[in-house]
Amino acid sequence: MGDYVQAGIYGSAVLMMKICEIGSARDCVMAEAAGQRGYARVRTMTRSEFDDELTSFLQGSTSASWSVRAASGRRLAAVAEVPEVADVLHRLLLDGRDTFVTQETAEALLERWDVLGLRMVLAALASADDDAGDHLDAAILNVCHQSTEDGERLAALCSALTSDADNAVSGEARRILEPLRSPDRYLP
Q1: What sign for the dihedral angle of Cα 113, 114, 116, 121?
Q2: Using CA atoms, how far apart are residues 65 and 22, in angstroms rounded to an integer?
Q3: Angle at 26 between CA 76 and CA 54, to 5 degrees
Q4: Residue 159 class from Cβ within 10 Å (0-12 exposed, 13-18 middle, 19+ buried)?
Q5: Contact predicate 63/72, CB 8 Å
Q6: Is the overall model pTM greater than 0.70, yes or no?
Q7: DSSP assignment letter at 46
Q8: CA–CA separation, 128 vs 131, rounded Å?
Q9: 176 C-beta neighbours (distance < 10 Å), count
Q10: pLDDT exceeds 90 at position 185
Q11: Virtual CA dihedral for 117, 52, 41, 149, nearest 10 degrees?
């Protein structure tokens, strides 16, 4: 894995972005957030600093405090592609002690606006109890149904997941996609 930088806040999630090599300078990053690419100059974070922060967030995910677990879920969502983070995010999405943790983690994953984030939420939704399922659905509504453009982006992501190898994920993607394709979806 290359070096990562803490590039700023997207929603309330800290964005970690991979460094691009530009000549001999290593202070420019390329990121893709919400379907847009951008470049920013930032302070680089060494692998050791990144590992220390990641360890802190992973440890926070088991805290007795709901607010610490929720903050960890939000921060870990920014680096969901890191292999050791996926299982922790799944556990936080199905947090049995507080649904605020469930909803915050789901919203942070959905704010990524990518297949990976949505897939993680749909996988949790497929196995969630009614209470957690309600909060996962609420997260989808809060993040992905704020505008017509959001609905179109959600439909595109769901379309990509309708052929997912996990039948539970593809089934949830089809369930969400059905009303999005309905011609009267904006009628009361």
Answers
A1: positive
A2: 42
A3: 20
A4: middle
A5: yes
A6: yes
A7: -
A8: 8
A9: 22
A10: no
A11: 10
Asked if 133 and 121 touch (Cβ cutoff 8 Å), the reply is: no
Tens digits of residue pLDDT in 45-67 = 677 777 788 899 999 999 999 99
Question: CA 84 → CA 5, 51, 95, distances in Å?
Answer: 18, 11, 18
Structure token digits, residue 30:
């390329």
Residue type, 128: A
Q: Provide the mean pLDDT of the chain.
A: 81
Percent of the chain with pLDDT over 90: 64
Sheet holding 44-45, edge to edge: 36-41, 25-33, 13-22, 4-10, 44-45
Q: Which residue has the tokens 């970690």?
A: 16
Q: Amino acid identity of 162?
A: T
Distance of alpha carbon 81 from alpha carbon 17, whole angstroms? 11
Residue 37 has pLDDT above 60, yes or no: no
- Tell me the CA end-to-end span of the chain in Å, nearest whole number: 49
- Model confidence pLDDT, tens digit, residues 124-150: 999 999 999 999 999 999 999 999 999
